[in-house]
Amino acid sequence: MGNMKLTLKIWRQNGPNDQGKMVSYPVNNVSEDMSFLEMLDVLNDDLVRKGEDPIAFDHDCREGICGSCSLFINGEAHGPGRLITTCQLHMRKFKDGDTIHVEPWRAEAFPVIKDLAVNRSAFDRIQAAGGFVTVNTSGNLVDGNAVPIPKDDADKAFDAATCIGCGACVATCVNSSAMLFVAAKVSQFALLPQGKPEAKRRVLAMVEQMDKEGFGNCSNTGACEVECPKGISLEHIARMNREYLAASVTKE
Ligand code: SF4
Ligand code: FES
Asked: Which of 5, 6, 210, 239 is deepest in the core (most CB within 10 A)?
């Protein structure tokens, strides 16, 4: 146990149709070595012991790879610090006596389920619309490593593929745009020969689904890139726009 004392102001909301409000909680004995989620575990443990409703928040891997932890902390997606998710944020980033505001992602396309947990199934539907490649199951399988790919393209595709679908880009954007996420998912295939057969169909279908889900447009503020825990570059948005334009004018 540590010796930091904090005041947490946490968004409580019973369900999608509840109005919700900020509620203040004191938390004592916080160690600077705890992760932010461990600190919330301590608070929830305390609430359960007192017979109160624990705070709902998403988490799974707790090592920065699943994208499910999604908190807006002191006005920043995934809190202070760059290139980290909420589960990789440690309490040493805060000071004894601090007041910390914790809110869910705020976007119409990510409705609140309860408290800090939001519904990000819109991302799943965008992925399902085109985020896949053809696999030859005829018996003439070609080993993926047997297809030569320029190193630069492979590196860029890999960078795009590191997107964990956390939604910080949407939560940060003034327009709640999902362009950085969708661009990463288009780019990871667009640069590889394996992604070519469905390339046109993919970009058109994924952008159409993105629009249907109610995400806003990109106005190039670049805030998404700054807050993205995986450092996904705006360059991928430019690539997606080129892919989209080319697919639009040449579609059958
Ligand atoms: S682009 Fe970055 S911020 Fe957006 S979903 Fe992917 S990892 Fe998260
Ligand atoms: S819990 Fe998986 S990325 Fe944070």
From this structure: 210
Closest ligand 1 atom, residue 167 Cα: 5
Please name the CATH architecture into which domain 4-114 falls: Roll (3.10)
- For 228-239, the pLDDT digits (tens) are 999 999 999 999
Mutate to test the pocket of ligand 2, among 68, 73, 83, 89 (most ligand atoms within 8 A of CB): 68
Q: How many residues does the chain have?
A: 252
Q: Which of 242, 245, 222 is nearest to 232 (CA)?
A: 222
Q: What is the pTM of this model?
A: 0.95
Categorize the per-residue pLDDT at 252 as very low, low, confident or very high, splitting at 50, 70 and 90: low
Domain assignments of the chain as residue spans, ordered by start:
4-114, 120-250
Same fold, 4-114 and 120-250: no
CB distance 122 to 213 below 8 Å: yes
For residue 52, pLDDT over 90 is answered with yes
Residue 111 host element (H or E): none
CATH of domain 120-250: 1.10.1060.10
Instruction: Tell me the mean pLDDT in the region 97-110.
Output: 97
Give the tokens for residue 115: 């408290």
